[in-house]
Amino acid sequence: MHAILRSLYFRYLPKGTLASGLLLTWVLLFPTFASRAQDATQTSIDRINWATSLSTRTLLVVYPTYTIKHQRIRSAVRNLDTQAKGRQQAEQTMSRDRAYRDTLILALANSFKEKYTFGPVLLMPDTSYTQWRKGKRDIQLIDLDLNPIARRNWEDKDVLLLHKKKTSRDTGTGMEIWVAEAPDLTALPRKFPDQFKEGSIGTRFVRFFEAFFSFSHHTDRLEELRVITDYFARQVDRKWAAYLYSFSELGR
Question: Residue 53: which of 151, 251, 250, 189 has the closest Cα?
């Protein structure tokens, strides 16, 4: 059944027609998640100025490193013999996480390079994101060719963050959403698109069955993750373009 679901998904989803119709039905039946706090007190001029700055900001996309998770795993099994079942399972889990991380980084880099048109994009490890939240601006980042870039002190006005955040509705399905965040943690402008689902309804359908029936025992392949990251990067680009277009219409 798992093989059948994957075959149907990857064969028909790229054509878009059926997936788009199902996605529209889903949106109509199940309203989107509550948005993060947005500033309703800003004037139209404030929002226009912020919208205009969007294309000049470097987008920092946060990816998981599993650093903290693996530290805890190593701590939990450090007294076990190397041949112990628990130790071997721990090593398998960490190896699978690292493989997924490396594939996800490559998928995100390729997708944003091809689908995102606003401006520069850099990838940020979640360890750097943690440092950012603590006020540090001289952090480790990599470009979309996966090369580390020179450290510099980033100004809040020059960047925008995107990071994963689980929601209660996604619990147990393996699916998450991505959230846009102002670098200084202030509220985003009213009606600014700040949440993006990880994949289309077709992706969510397959991932739900994988999680529910425990089908997913292999590392995600690049072509599979590209379906997710392409959709994600394309949605960010389209929704922010529509947001900017709404202001250009007002100015006519």
Answer: 189
**How far is Cα of residue 35 from the mean position of the Cα atoms in its chain?**
16
CA dist., res. 160 & res. 149, Å (int): 17
| Sign of the dihedral defined by the CA atoms of residues 179, 184, 185, 187, in that order | negative
CB 47 within 8 A of CB 82: no
DSSP state, residue 32: P
For 188, phi then psi, to 5°, come to -80, 160
Query: Given 3-state DSSP classes, what are the helix, strand and coil percentages for the chain, each rounded to the nearest 5?
Result: 55, 15, 35
Q: Which pair of structure tokens corresponds to residue 109?
A: 């880099």
Res 231 pLDDT > 50: yes
Using DSSP's 3-state secondary structure scheme, residue 252 falls into coil
Strands 177-181 and 159-165: antiparallel
Give the residue from 97, 69, 91, 116 showing the smallest Cα distance to 231: 116
Can you tell me the distance from the alpha carbon of 175 to that of 190, in angstroms, rounded to the nearest whole number? 26
**CA angle, 33 as apex, 184 and 220 as ends, to 5°?**
85
Q: What is the pTM of this model?
A: 0.73
For residue range 52-61, what is the model confidence (pLDDT) as tens digits?
788 889 999 9
For the record, the structure tokens of 30 come out as: 């199940």
